[in-house]
Amino acid sequence: MARVNRRLALATAPAEAARRHGSVPIRLDKALDLFPQAGRSFDYATFAELVEEAAARLAGAGITDGQRILIVKQSNFDIPLLAFACARIGAVPVLVHSAVGFQALGVMTGRAAPAAILTDAVTESAGVLDSVDATLPRWYVGERGEHGLSLLDAPRGQFPPAAVPREDTPQLVTHSSGTTGVPKLVLHSVHSFAGHARPQITIGKVLRVRDPYLMCLSPVHARCMSGMLAILALGLPLGFLTDTAPENAAELLAAVKPGVVETVPNAFIRWEEVAERQPELFAQTRLFVSSFDAAHPRTIRTLLAAAKPGARYMQAYGQTETGPVTVKSHKLKSRCEHGRCVGRGVLGHTKIRVLDDEGDKAPRGVPGQIFARSSGVTPSYLGSPDQRVDGWWAMGDYGLVSARGCLHLFDRIVDRGSGVESLLAAEDDILEALPQLTEAVIIPMSDGGPAIPLVVTRGDTPLDLAAWRAAVAGLPELAAPVQCRWDDIPHTATWKVKRLEVARRLAAGDLPVLATAGEER
């Protein structure tokens, strides 16, 4: 079987990037937990050296080729560093966000069957590992913990020179969002994960991207890892954020002066206030990138208004299981005909189709379930059946292909039945009408009652109820809006609201709220 290019394999990408672009800088919003002495700024060459050092420690800890290694710790840039290090010695990193909770982590650990766990004392003391067998070897990033030693206490082990594995070699396991239950563990081979990165590199070359790249993504997410492959391959200066808070974003924007800014839509919406108050921080930005979820039109417009003239907002739709499926490019003066449009399939890489309620291919303009084909589709889940139907991957989303051949995304299928044609479109309309909101999510309730709008305001100021009533006047019946703080809302690793979890907690009365409007409309 053929081998993947050295730039597109986790085992070889850092060293290859250092060889080609060794002096290119990397700047972080906080120092590494594993190698704090490296500080917040270093270059590609140092990054490759740190990956080699971590690989040596992993080898000294007894981790060998083919083993799965569970990595669950506080979010930081050393998570992708450790993933590269695992791949460097032939191990398969299993990246899990600590926010999945101890019960889900217990299930996921059983499915992953790891040979060891990489964690930290803070994560352990928070109870995240309470359902995981304490006899499973644990190595700690930073200070040693209750059940093991610091990884840096391990001797430096030996491992062979770097080589690109065969295409079918398991390379990485990440997880789905978990919006509908226990997150699924998504396995990627060298070949399938190269299918995630390759379209990004193609787009970067077509757009002649050479600018500093500011990335704010969950370090455990597949998009973070494929983005790292693309950035290293293109040799771009990198700024990396783990905290989406507007003030944190402003600090690194000022330091990096990025030409490209990437985060998820639910972080970009928080950065609207940065674009309005300090537009000079985006003065050199010519490209915004978001993926996996559809961005709100208000967010796109606000960011582009602050950016360099002629800037684009590049929106990709896809999943951990597929990589990017469609791409849509926006400019400030070229508004899409529909706010839910997420573009067309990536030419030469992906195909999409929509099936109607009878399971037949839906004609253009008729909504149904969305399916995709891509070279980036996962070979399988670990411990769960996959979502292939006749060779097509079921995205779990509902939408249509427009008369112009664009995909319009309406909702997750599990969120259908609220009486609102498209929850996402309704949320777009509410956000357009109410600039004080940084979040508006309509939560369908299982008891059949009116859906509950969950809102977050800038600075947690009281919701303008008169403006609210005007904004929702044309929608089906909704319950009274519930106002919360951003940090009190259950989010996935990509900061997407867990609608089912919110519905459960609202019904149980254990979701912290700031206020509930006194009357239903």
Automatic annotation (TrEMBL):
SUPFAM superfamilies: Acetyl-CoA synthetase-like. InterPro entries: AMP-binding_CS, AMP-dep_synth/lig_dom, ANL_N_sf, ATP-dep_AMP-bd_enzyme. This is AMP-dependent synthetase/ligase domain-containing protein. It holds the Pfam family AMP-binding. It comes from the Bacteria. Residues 37-382 form the AMP-dependent synthetase/ligase domain.
